[in-house]
Amino acid sequence: MSTYVVSDIHGKYDKFIEVLDKINLKEEDTLYVLGDILDRGKHPIKVMLKLMEMKNVICIVGNHELMAIRCMDFIIQKITATSIDKLDKKIYRDFSIWYRNGAKTTIDEFIKLDSKMKFKIIDYMKNFITYEKLYINNKNFLLVHGGLGDFHPDKKIEEYTLDELVWNRVDYDMKYFDNIYLVTGHTPTMLIESNTNPGYIYKANNHIAIDCGACFHGGRLGAICLDTGEEFYSS
């Protein structure tokens, strides 16, 4: 029984399947997905549907799921004069932010689904957890999508806001904890200045950064086994 973590798939279905094949995930294993399943890549909804079929997957919400959830309830409404009249500045703003962050591919696939499946996807995403604490082989791990905004070593994880967990980025040059490994996505590892191996999993100062930039030039999808430290990559 092993625990694996992947993050920021961003609609790269083929890369996700390739990494799954390399992991050779078994029924007794657990795969954590640290958010940002949606947007940018060609098949975000196809990835989501695959995850929904897998019984041993636990998803942590990312900022792209958060943006989508705020807009999808409106997308599934029947457009009428009344619904248009009810549009307010917040909905316009939420759609604008989401679209600027690569929502087109998600919307294109989502609107082709039947109504029942649309609701299933929304319900599935609304049940994503915000963080996970794990104890594996005498090591403590804390899994979040983005980081720990307004960080303080005495601040309990329950005290962080959702935005602080999904939007804020980690200072990878700073060691947050002595006895906890902080596992994050959100920040592509090629953007970590101190990373000498950009585009691959970054480990330093008790940080494990696993967003390897799957949807960017020179990037790939990366995953890690927390039990062994073994790393897996798409081509």
SSE inventory with pairings:
Elements (H helix, E strand, L loop, with lengths): L2 E4 L6 H11 L6 E4 L10 H10 L3 E3 L3 H13 L5 H5 L3 H12 L3 H7 L4 H12 L5 E5 L2 E5 L18 H5 L13 E5 L17 E3 L2 E3 L12 E4 L5 E3 L2
Parallel strand pairs: 1-2, 2-3, 5-6, 6-8
Antiparallel strand pairs: 1-9, 4-5, 7-8, 9-10
Radius of gyration: 18 Å
Enumerate the spans where pLDDT stays under 50 for 5 or more consecutive residues: none
Please state the structural category: alpha/beta
Strand and helix order: EHEHEHHHHHEEHEEEEE
How far is it from the N-terminal to the C-terminal residue, by CA? 26 Å
Separate helix tally: 8
Second-tier CATH architecture: 4-Layer Sandwich
The main pleated sheet reads as: 5 strands, mixed
CATH superfamily: Metallo-dependent phosphatases
| Count of structural domains | 1
Percentage of β-strand residues = 15-25%
Protein name: Calcineurin-like phosphoesterase domain-containing protein
InterPro entries: Ap4A_hydrolase, Calcineurin-like_PHP, Metallo-depent_PP-like, Ser/Thr-sp_prot-phosphatase
Pfam family, one: Metallophos
GO molecular function: phosphatase activity
